[in-house]
């Protein structure tokens, strides 16, 4: 698993979870968020960011939500997030597709090669791609609201 954060101010590096590690609420909160993701985000954006995540069980765990409400001034709580809508996350609707096109052009031999290809693709990612994806967020949000949280990509 790989995590990352994007913004118009810049992006974090890739944060890798080693194969076989179970990403439960405690691991997500104590390792990925507190030791990796939040420090990386703050190094890019200071306190000027909105924290958005999907509805994975580790993300919506009670202790995780409490931590994020306490630590992040602008956190989109799970109750405000459509449960089945990755269509609202710039990483899902744009960045991961661009990354996949670059990473999977050729057959991958092993995990080490996959990791290196991800690093190479991420380092080649242009900020203008990220900016365009972020600019699309409000439009997607409006379509999601008009679809009452349902599927809306066919309207874009």
Describe this structure in words.
With 156 residues, the chain is mainly alpha-helical. It folds into two domains: 1-81, no CATH class; 82-156, no CATH class. The chain has helices at 25-45, 57-60, 62-71, 90-103, 111-124, 127-135, 137-146, and strands at residues 2-3, 15-16. The protein has a two-stranded antiparallel ribbon with strand order 1-2. Helix 4 packs antiparallel against helix 6. The relative contact order is 0.13.
Can I get a quick summary?
The protein has seven helices and two strands, in the order ββααααααα.
Number of helices: 7
Give the overall pLDDT as a whole number.
Answer: 90
Question: For the report, how would you describe the main beta sheet?
Answer: 2 strands, antiparallel
Which geometry do the CA atoms define? globular
List SSEs in N-to-C order: EEHHHHHHH
Strand arrangement, major sheet: 1-2
What's the Cα radius of gyration?
A: 16 Å
User: What oligomeric state is this?
Assistant: single chain
Number of domains: 2
| Category by helix and strand content | mainly alpha
The number of E-state strands comes to 2
- Percent of residues in helices: 40-55%
Distance between the termini: 29 Å
Name the beta content range. under 5%
Low-confidence stretches: none
List keywords for this structure.
2 domains, globular, 156 residues, 3% strand, mainly alpha
Topology:
Layout: E1 2-3, E2 15-16, H1 25-45, H2 57-60, H3 62-71, H4 90-103, H5 111-124, H6 127-135, H7 137-146
Antiparallel strand pairs: 1-2
């Amino acid at each position: 698993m790989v995590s990352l954060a994007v913004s118009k101010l810049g992006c974090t590096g890739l944060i890798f979870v080693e194969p076989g590690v179970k990403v439960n609420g405690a691991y997500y909160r104590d390792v990925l968020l507190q030791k990796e993701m939040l420090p990386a985000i703050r190094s890019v954006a200071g306190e000027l960011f909105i924290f958005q995540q999907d509805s994975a069980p580790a993300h919506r765990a009670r202790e995780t939500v409490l931590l994020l409400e306490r630590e992040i001034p602008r956190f989109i709580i799970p109750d405000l997030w459509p449960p089945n809508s990755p269509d609202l996350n710039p990483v899902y609707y744009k960045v991961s597709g661009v990354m996949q096109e670059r990473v999977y052009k050729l057959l991958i031999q092993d995990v080490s090669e996959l990791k290196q290809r991800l690093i190479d693709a991420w380092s080649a990612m242009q900020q203008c791609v990220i900016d365009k994806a972020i600019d699309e967020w409000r439009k997607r949000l409006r379509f999601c609201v008009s679809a009452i949280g349902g599927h809306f990509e066919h309207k874009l």
